[in-house]
Amino acid sequence: METKKYILKISPVIVGILFLYTGLRKLWEGDLFYHTLLNSINIENQLIIEGLSLGIPIVEIITSLTLLFYPKKNIGLYTCLIVLIFYSGYLINLLFFQEEIPCTCRTILPLLGWYGHLYFTLSLFLFLIGLLQLRGLKIK
After folding, report:
1. HSE-up (13 A, CA, CB side) for residue 103
2. Which residue from 71, 73, 79, 116 has the highest number of Cβ atoms inside 10 Å of its Cβ?
3. Please, are residues 108 and 115 in contact by the beta-carbon 8 Å criterion?
């Protein structure tokens, strides 16, 4: 029972730090993230791309703060799942439906490559589902 208690306390912190890192990194290297979005998704409106390039990191940072400091971690965990669903869709779109994949050599986990990012994201998604079930919450 002690192991479950530690897993439930430590896991949101680890995921929160990961989301905080990715959000801050995207804000720090805003030009790289903006140009990656501009070159990788089929949205021609620059205003939408600018909104996404600011909105996504802000959502990641708020999610991380929820996981790190808010007593009800479930909100942060569900938000993580939603973000990971969208990010997985973005990666699948890049890998299977785009002719050219933009080079973003300075992104998080740079040694993984795009397929590695997809595998990592899907693994984190499954981990979060398991964590939510361990917390006694049902995923429908």
Report:
1. 1
2. 73
3. no
